[in-house]
Amino acid sequence: MSDNTTSSNKSLLNDAGTRAIIFQVVLLAVVVFVSYYLFSNLQANLANQGISTGFEFLNQPAGFPVLIHLIEYTEADTYGRAFIVALINTIVISLMGIILATVIGVVMGLARLSNNWLVARLATVYVETLRNIPLLLQMFFWYFAVLATLPIPKNSIIFGDFFLNKRGIYSPNPLFQEGFGFVIAGFVISIIASIALIVWAKRRQTITGLWFPAYWASLGLIVVITFLALAISGFPIEFDLPQKSRFNVTGGMVLPPEFVAVLVALSTYTGAFIAEIVRAGILSVNWGQTEAARSLGLKDSLTQRLIVLPQALRVIIPPLTSQFLNLAKNSSLGAAIAYPELVAVVMGTTLNQTGQAIENIGLCMLVYGTLSLTISIFMNWYNKKMSLTER
Predict the structure, then answer these.
(1) What's the pTM?
(2) Residue 363: count of CB within 10 angstroms of its CB
């Protein structure tokens, strides 16, 4: 009996799977113990210094203004409301920056591969210049050297219904009237119909080999249905145009210089890195693919869209994800030029007024962690969708 028990124990310890489970349980216990010790020590030190903990301060009046806010906000609102305003500002600048940087990166990446000598050299100068200058310095350049040198409001630079001055870019502000919900419904229906058309076109091409311009047809479908919805509902949209008064510009919608400087700097800086990623992805596709497509009589545009880019995406998407994550986190540098994002509002004014360092730091870490994980999950899903599958 004793010999059987001994041999059983030896076999369990020699099993790699069993050892892995034991090591993970031990590691988890150590992590839990260390975390509990550190938290208990933190609580004791804060109590000894008379510093209160908790998130009750979020319900207290903030008492400070936030100059850029997409939702209603006044100084009488709470710290929690100020946090929501800063969160929205961070998400908006990150999403818009990702979109613009992607467009800039794709265009510049293709331009670097252009057969036109001048276009290729200009794209090279753009990439090599912007990606080698610190992002913070570029924000300072756009804010202090470009936007701060614009004329005062009464001497605004005018382009049609757009006004440009020290206070920002003034543009027409759309005012949605009663019945605009019908237009939104029409737009949603057109999106659903477009997706169904693209799916049908892909299945048809797989079965019959016949190609259908689904993307152009989908774009036309969206435009036509949305325009019909606008026409049927009587075009329920008006524009509040900016007007130049004697000393100021009134009306319209304004993009403050802080927002413009952060957006332009983030987009152009990250776009330079994306351009190199796009160029490397396209060059990774064997030139024989392009030659084979041309021998079949395909146009260069179709060759790039149907043959080269789908294969290049397998190389482009992983490093592109890293650039998107960097852009979202680099948005925190906007605090240096007073753009009211999370770091400026929460880690700056709120922390200085409340003294709740642990809570404010934790909130910012939670937001940036969640934002980064969301981007990673989406890009990993897209990468898996675009990867080659064996048949």
Answers:
(1) 0.83
(2) 20
* Closest of 306, 333, 283, 324 to residue 141, by C-alpha: 333
CATH topology for 79-148+257-386 is MetI-like fold (1.10.3720)
Q: Which long-range contacts (CB under 8 A, 24 or more apart) does 189-194 make?
A: 189/225, 190/221, 190/222, 190/224, 190/225, 190/226, 191/222, 193/221, 193/225, 194/218, 194/219, 194/221, 194/222
Residue 118: CB atoms within 10 A of its CB come to 8
Collapsing DSSP to helix, strand or coil, 23 comes out as helix
pLDDT of residue 391: 47
Q: What residue spans define the domains of the chain?
A: 8-45, 79-148+257-386
Residue 370: DSSP 8-state: H
- Give CA–CA dist 107/120, Å, rounded: 11
pLDDT tens by residue, 184-215: 999 999 999 999 998 898 888 888 878 788 88
- The Cα–Cα gap between 179 and 236 comes to 6
Burial degree of 165 (CB within 10 A; 0-12, 13-18, 19+): buried
Whether residue 314 contacts residue 282, with contact meaning beta carbons closer than 8 Å, is answered with no
**Which secondary structure element, helix H or strand E, spans residue 150, and what is its range?**
none
